[in-house]
Amino acid sequence: MATPREHAVVTASGFERWSNCTAAPRYEELFPDGETSVYAAEGTLAHAVCELYGRKKFTPMSTRKFNSELKKLKSHALWQDEMSKTAEFYVNFLVEKANEYEAIPHVAFEVRVDLSEYIPEGFGTCDCIMIGGDTLRITDYKHGKGVPVSSINNGQMRAYALGALKMFYPIYGDSIKRVCTAIVQPRITEDVVEEWLSVDELKEWGANVLRPKAQAAYFGVGTFCAGEWCRFCKGKAECRARAEYYAGFSQYVNADIEGRMTAADLERADQLSSMDVAKPPVLSDAEIGELLAKAEGLAAWYADLQEYARDAILTGREIPGWKVVEGKRIRAFTDADAAMEKMRSEGYDDAILYDRKPKTLAQLEKLTGKKRFTELMGDLITWPPGKPTLVSATDARDPYSPVGPREFAGVGDV
Ligand code: SF4
What ligand 1 atom has the least distance to the C-alpha of 225? Predict the structure, then answer.
């Protein structure tokens, strides 16, 4: 089973949060640990399955032992058959990477690494460490299918790599020159993006970015800074800094308009007592860019406030101006089969009673397997262009082009 993870004040997994909001770790100590979500429990089980498949592939393990361990995992209430498939995908990826080494690398799973050289009292658990020749590989498995996590600029992965370098230094010394980190998230994509860094680059990042941020966070001298990283903060609903961030749009109301109104406009505004010159009527494109970035998390923040207030009222507290009521009731059959039977007896046949819908492309692919599906359907699949979608400039995708690469496909072959 996966090694249990203990609690640390500044955790590598929270890097995105505390590297942006260095006040977060000490602030979060004000709040009790939340209950483990079913998704987290599912993730822990999926990690245990990956670990088992990995050990079977890379370490001596009898089939009998493997089957008995797998049987135990399958008896878990959250078991899904998909977990075997995702574990196989993870292990196949590792095999492919192991084959890139000139000699068989050392492969270890669920390895606890010491991060205290950079993060006070810090430690982490690497899903897989592969080391040999001049290369260290850190691979993380993620079972979630909601938010894709990139290994590029990923502080958690880099911190794990620093911990693994330290751990294996007595054996490999200075022979390790390159580090590769990768995140396998097969329920979202089969493409695995890798980040390659030299050991010197990684250590420089550790000394200049990781260590100072972690120390500020640990010693309680951090600064509050709200942003999208608040979503996993234990005190996200009650946080004043976050409230000010989302509620404090006054800078846009009271913005200095000098430079955006002509002298004549200002003179006219001066004459109109009803017009407050400190409230420009039109936002600049730069302000819209800033507001878009802020407003991205607005809905999530509001949902957090709602959840907090609802729970508070249900436990007997008062949130002035708010109450909890019963939501809209939606009728439901107590027995859907019996209901359909009655409709049939009224003379309605199944063609009217049921909608017949084909399964989606992804569902059909799941039935046949990817390889067979490509053989069968390759000539029936097209990729219509996606709709223009607004994203942050930091998004890794190429900017939208009305005439995309697919429209040019084959032009050069004429
Ligand atoms: S909610 Fe956001 S701003 Fe507030 S402490 Fe947490 S991470 Fe920092």
Answer: 3
